[in-house]
Amino acid sequence: MNHITFQQDRELDFIGLGRLCIDLNANEINRPMEETLTFTKYVGGSPANITIALAKLGARTGFIGKVSDDQFGRFIKSYLHKLNIDTRNVVTDHTGAVTGLAFTEIKSPTDCSILMYRNNVADLKLEAGEVQEDFIKRAKAILISGTALASSPSREAVFQAIEYARKHQVVIIFDVDYRRWTWKSKEETAIYCNLVAEQCDVIIAGREEFDVMEIVTGPEVKDDSATAQRWFERQAKIVVVKHGGDGSIVFTKDGGSSQGGIFPAKQVIKTFGAGDSFAGAFIYGLLQGWPVEKCQEFGSASASIVVSSHSCSDAMPTVEQIENLIREHRANSSI
Amino acid sequence: MNHITFQQDRELDFIGLGRLCIDLNANEINRPMEETLTFTKYVGGSPANITIALAKLGARTGFIGKVSDDQFGRFIKSYLHKLNIDTRNVVTDHTGAVTGLAFTEIKSPTDCSILMYRNNVADLKLEAGEVQEDFIKRAKAILISGTALASSPSREAVFQAIEYARKHQVVIIFDVDYRRWTWKSKEETAIYCNLVAEQCDVIIAGREEFDVMEIVTGPEVKDDSATAQRWFERQAKIVVVKHGGDGSIVFTKDGGSSQGGIFPAKQVIKTFGAGDSFAGAFIYGLLQGWPVEKCQEFGSASASIVVSSHSCSDAMPTVEQIENLIREHRANSSI
Amino acid sequence: MNHITFQQDRELDFIGLGRLCIDLNANEINRPMEETLTFTKYVGGSPANITIALAKLGARTGFIGKVSDDQFGRFIKSYLHKLNIDTRNVVTDHTGAVTGLAFTEIKSPTDCSILMYRNNVADLKLEAGEVQEDFIKRAKAILISGTALASSPSREAVFQAIEYARKHQVVIIFDVDYRRWTWKSKEETAIYCNLVAEQCDVIIAGREEFDVMEIVTGPEVKDDSATAQRWFERQAKIVVVKHGGDGSIVFTKDGGSSQGGIFPAKQVIKTFGAGDSFAGAFIYGLLQGWPVEKCQEFGSASASIVVSSHSCSDAMPTVEQIENLIREHRANSSI
Amino acid sequence: MNHITFQQDRELDFIGLGRLCIDLNANEINRPMEETLTFTKYVGGSPANITIALAKLGARTGFIGKVSDDQFGRFIKSYLHKLNIDTRNVVTDHTGAVTGLAFTEIKSPTDCSILMYRNNVADLKLEAGEVQEDFIKRAKAILISGTALASSPSREAVFQAIEYARKHQVVIIFDVDYRRWTWKSKEETAIYCNLVAEQCDVIIAGREEFDVMEIVTGPEVKDDSATAQRWFERQAKIVVVKHGGDGSIVFTKDGGSSQGGIFPAKQVIKTFGAGDSFAGAFIYGLLQGWPVEKCQEFGSASASIVVSSHSCSDAMPTVEQIENLIREHRANSSI
């Protein structure tokens, strides 16, 4: 029991909505990008990663988004398709938009950065009229990724999707996923993220992301419990506050909270993808009806696997891999 | 008693938010504009007109908006000031924006049109950060004019103002005021007007405006009562559906409704300004605590005076003028 | 004889190219615009004024430009038509552009200013493909107004028109008409005005306008004669340097120059329109084959008449009016 | 003797102006890009390639351009620096622009395509005021790359550079390098390329590029000789018309022309870079004072080497490599 009730008669467990991008990961790592010679391409973008995570865990998933009408757009769509992610609502742009790119630079496991290409990207061209009510109503849950709010017309598409989800009792999960690019100001971010958060059942964000959402209305003191409480007064039933290397705290509407640490990784290659793999596995747990503590542990173990790998999407683990890690970890801890 | 409870300890009765423009009314009327030689200038814009109406009726009013840094901007601000409208939150633009213009063409009392200048207008440049919480909390009621939602950053300023108004129990009145200019699509209009309407206590719109708001989510059948009901499930306590020459229907949350006709005008010059004068006088009635039927009659009488005049803002009547008209009208009717 | 040879077998004497606008002149003058109540509308825009001047002097004229698809656009086109100005290459915009506006403020005869509306104006939407070679080749001379260079696609239309004019030996006259609005920087102005001036037979500009054109390439010392010389090395045969209230100097390629004063006006109302009326009458003289001194005097007399009137375009004088003034002036001087 | 006289007292032989980009070349070739896993990064962009070609041939070179303020911009600048290309006039953007990208897709040696990223690119942000007169006057020749004309402010920077080059007798070479992206229409391309070509000493373009330049003014019949003649009437002394796989024709102002074939490549990997390597080696020959026939042969041999390699810039050959190939080829031909 975890406070979330999913409609059981649904064809899909989960739909992701938002960014579909290409990650170009440096092959020669532990150096500045200037000295990198080659890059490997992967599907990327936070909601894409989360959906892929769920698909690899065995959930029946789908996606709502927009891709460019070129080789990269086709690659993304066919990659999702191969993972059995339903792409019927992945629209192809016809205005000359491009696929967003993220070139990763890994100077050291703790000094990573990203060179983004976000001008005229297809994912932000998704229009309200392209969101299919008939698709949304088939799902138990939908994930709204906050970057999709960063500009029009994608922003309106999000509000449209939320309208449909509410109408059909689809559980709405909001991953704030705040990235500075594209947003005009933090005030703008706060206004739209708050308008969305108000209507969501589950809210997942880092402490700094909640801080941005609170710059206009306060409260002055940044306090996880107060933050969660604010949203429980609206629609939220679960609020997850992420604290990076210090783990996460999950609050539930009944007043409960669960502090979770991170799983020690064998060999951290980079920090990218930790949040997405956590979110994917956590949501998977919710769908199974697990207690939030178990969801949280499952998420942390998944993150630990991804940070030890070269990619984000490709490295998303299976249930077995996660369970093995948890088992191993417990064995070690009990020695 | 009219279902709306105003906080009584407030310094201001009413704040308008949105467009501040210049009307340039043809002096030589009953002909196409091509043959007009001269124009007379007035302050215009729907929320400006409504606020002026309330000021002339004796209410203590203020305004939140943005004006151009030129002769027209200064004229508007000084005009409001002369009517005792508090302009402390009327900001001056410094980006080179201009004042919106409306050249009116009066071919006949029933064939009027407007030539709009809405490129790079100051009113749509109002930013969220420029809306003063300290000003809003001094008022009993705030009017949100829908055109302020038509583009950013003014759109965000509206959401900001609503956030402050809710926080301080300021009654929120939404005048949809849908004008095609500036909006990208009807879907966009529907999405943002619905996000606002959800949070308002009083909603005033024409039937066609409600139709636009309902294009996405339905209902299929356009029905005034169903429209009102939808909003009573959210925050609304009063919904006014305007039917142009056929009057208006006012719905109240307790299930009541009041059908109101229009007042016969002595000599209709043009139809501009009818809606704004109605809204101003209707809101004045709410502030007095009058029953909605009385508010409605007061509004209709006010509209009848304005359509018989050359201007909108300048022609807004006093309480005495409206009461005289109502008295006269009753006398005639009883003969 | 004036150094310019016009092709004599042409149907039209003159074609103007560029801005077609509306002037809204304050009726209540000698006060700030804030206190102006009414405005009178006239056709305006420098090349429009010059073409109207020539039409009123009896030249056979035409125009190349673009007007908005509304009442103001139709008013402009019909006004030109009434003056027998050939409007076959006055195109109507269909993108929702508006007519540029100039509200004039006359605080005193020497303190005048203009409030411009230049956002999304139709005149700057003229496209290269809309300029008719077949129309240009019918004319003796074409006037390029520098404001048409201020942005694309009108800028490209100018270069297209010049290409056609050169091909068909149409005399090219360049009126720099530098207005700060729309241009991004003085460097940009200099670059494009120089690219045009290089290809022109007659160049007319104020001293300050030549200064802008010389900011990139010098010469350091601002000297009328050096300025003129620079263009005589390219295509120019006549260079007119205007000095406002101090009159003008006309340089000719053969090394000649003529200093001209201004005509005393009976009662100066405003300074607007002085330059356009001068240019129109000066070009009229060139077309008659008059010596430049006589063209210059004719221009100055025309300017004197216009500054004594309320409008620019409407007040452009006839040959008779100008000749009367010159005669009168000579009579007075000889006393 | 080749009709071009270079000022001999110059510190630099050659300056390139325009695009500085990144090529990301598919490592797994002969397949659609969807199936490519990794990409190798190189410096790219036509004028960059030509300048690199000249640097590798031993010419003293420099560059005028703008790079992004990120890892890619720093990589480009340091790469040029390592080849002794003078980068003092390579400006760093500070507006958030990115480096243009070209992902190459090599399906087969004859079926290659490029996926371009050209939104908000740094190279098109070069401003007129950033072009250094003091740098240009140190060179014998400057190359204008047509893509730099595709939009403002880079377009104005080109005209500025030409103004300086003319002032200081720097030979101006125009490589039309027409790419559809960024240009609004072919008419726009024609107008600006013609304005530049008018002022150039050497013009290099493919037949299809000259066709675009002639769409407005004709001539109707596309004829290489007529095309060349048109420019000889202005400033041009040499006009090179490229015919892809059929080689090139070089026209000289004295009426001469030289037909040149292509060099058979041992193993063609892709066609990218053929034109740039030809241009680089051809210009190198002009700088040596070689007859145009010899320049042409040198250019063709260079192209043959580049199309047999994986990259463009990195593969630019040395004088020795080109001479070896020519010698080998003659030996084979004479058998």
TrEMBL record, chains A, B, C, D:
<dbReference type="GO" id="GO:0047590">
    <property type="term" value="F:5-dehydro-2-deoxygluconokinase activity"/>
</dbReference>
<keyword id="KW-0547">Nucleotide-binding</keyword>
<dbReference type="InterPro" id="IPR022841">
    <property type="entry name" value="DKG_kinase_firmi"/>
</dbReference>
<dbReference type="InterPro" id="IPR030830">
    <property type="entry name" value="Myo_inos_IolC"/>
</dbReference>
<dbReference type="InterPro" id="IPR011611">
    <property type="entry name" value="PfkB_dom"/>
</dbReference>
<comment type="pathway">
    <text>Polyol metabolism; myo-inositol degradation into acetyl-CoA; acetyl-CoA from myo-inositol: step 5/7.</text>
</comment>
<keyword id="KW-0808">Transferase</keyword>
<dbReference type="InterPro" id="IPR023314">
    <property type="entry name" value="Myo_inos_IolC-like_sf"/>
</dbReference>
<comment type="function">
    <text>Catalyzes the phosphorylation of 5-dehydro-2-deoxy-D-gluconate (2-deoxy-5-keto-D-gluconate or DKG) to 6-phospho-5-dehydro-2-deoxy-D-gluconate (DKGP).</text>
</comment>
<feature type="domain" description="Carbohydrate kinase PfkB">
    <location>
        <begin position="17"/>
        <end position="318"/>
    </location>
</feature>
<dbReference type="GO" id="GO:0019310">
    <property type="term" value="P:inositol catabolic process"/>
</dbReference>
<protein>
    <recommendedName>
        <fullName>5-dehydro-2-deoxygluconokinase</fullName>
        <ecNumber>2.7.1.92</ecNumber>
    </recommendedName>
</protein>
<comment type="similarity">
    <text>Belongs to the carbohydrate kinase PfkB family.</text>
</comment>
<dbReference type="InterPro" id="IPR002173">
    <property type="entry name" value="Carboh/pur_kinase_PfkB_CS"/>
</dbReference>
<keyword id="KW-0418">Kinase</keyword>
<dbReference type="GO" id="GO:0005524">
    <property type="term" value="F:ATP binding"/>
</dbReference>
<dbReference type="InterPro" id="IPR029056">
    <property type="entry name" value="Ribokinase-like"/>
</dbReference>
<dbReference type="Pfam" id="PF00294">
    <property type="entry name" value="PfkB"/>
</dbReference>
<keyword id="KW-0067">ATP-binding</keyword>
<dbReference type="InterPro" id="IPR050306">
    <property type="entry name" value="PfkB_Carbo_kinase"/>
</dbReference>
